[in-house]
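User: I'm preparing a small set of examples for a lab meeting where we compare how different chains pack in three dimensions. I only have the primary sequence for this one, and I'd like the structure in token form so I can line it up with the others. Please keep the answer compact; I'll paste it straight into my notes.
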Amino acid sequence: MRSYLMGLCLILAGCGGETGAAARMEDETVMQSERELIVVAAPRYGDPYYADVAAGIFEFHVAYAQAVQVHDDFLVLADARSAPAYIAALGPERVAIAPQDDIWMRDFSLSNANAPVMFRYTAEGQGGGRDGQDEADHVQEELAGLMQAAGLDFTESDWLNDGGNFVDDYADRAVLSRKFLRDNALTEAQGRALLQQRYGLEHVAFIEADEQGGLEHADGVVAFIDANTLVINAYPEDPAYADALVADLRAGLPGVTIHIIVTPYDGSDIYDERFGSACGLYTNMLVTPDRIYLPQFGIAEDAEALAAVRSWTDKTVVPVQSGQVCAMGGGVRCMSWQLRGENAARLRAWAAQR
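Assistant: Understood. Below is the structure token output for the 354-residue chain.
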């Protein structure tokens, strides 16, 4: 693992090392007054894996960008053959020719927009096994080249974890599934100490994923909407799991406020059996310091979920239709790489020259 990361850090000439994380967190007050930069990746033109859903992904990206652009900045990374359609829909300032090898940018990009860290992307995101890890490394190295070119600053880590399994409140609290511990052969005490000492966290909750095996991401189970304030799925069909989830969250996050949101999960139409579905999971929302981009699925419960989240926070809650892509296993948060502060400015400047 370390030989891989040594090579990756050579690629990532701009990586700041672990000592830079605390300094970057001091800029939080300034960052909160700025527009977030939300980045998504288009499938490569003609990619057979996405052939049946390419039109839906494009439709989702365009609708998402239109919802975001009123409040924050949006950028699509695309190859030369896919870019013209995005440029026609969104304008050239929101598109950069920088093809990526996967669309789920949350997982292989930077976690924690205030104190960015790049964990090593895990094999499960590419199907698992040795071949899956090789492909995961390749996907991440593609993005690494972009980050080097843009001069981004972040902490590099050799610990295995996907961005979908790092849900934080931009203060000092985070939730991860216990897959992080299993992947890195850590006890819960060791994992908590690691995240506290190296990545600026004070409180960490480890939970069991609601579906065992595969990705086991926390962001399909919980979402921070404010500091130490969580929204979690409802599990009326599995009260034992629901009770254990709440107990784990309260044990790891002292004083946490927990809201339970309606959860009309729909697994009837799954695109890839390895990854399940995100249909009906409002917890896969994207949260910024000032706004929440909330998935909507074209179902009756959408209005209930939207009203509930608006009642729980003073942030602006923006609905984003995600029914086009949720059967693939993700949506608003899963597809989004978030940047703010100097990193956002540097990537904007880099994209403007593409």
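A couple of notes for your slides: The domain at 2-352 is CATH 3.75.10.10 (L-arginine/glycine Amidinotransferase; Chain A). DSSP finds twelve helices and 15 strands in the chain.

User: Perfect, thanks.
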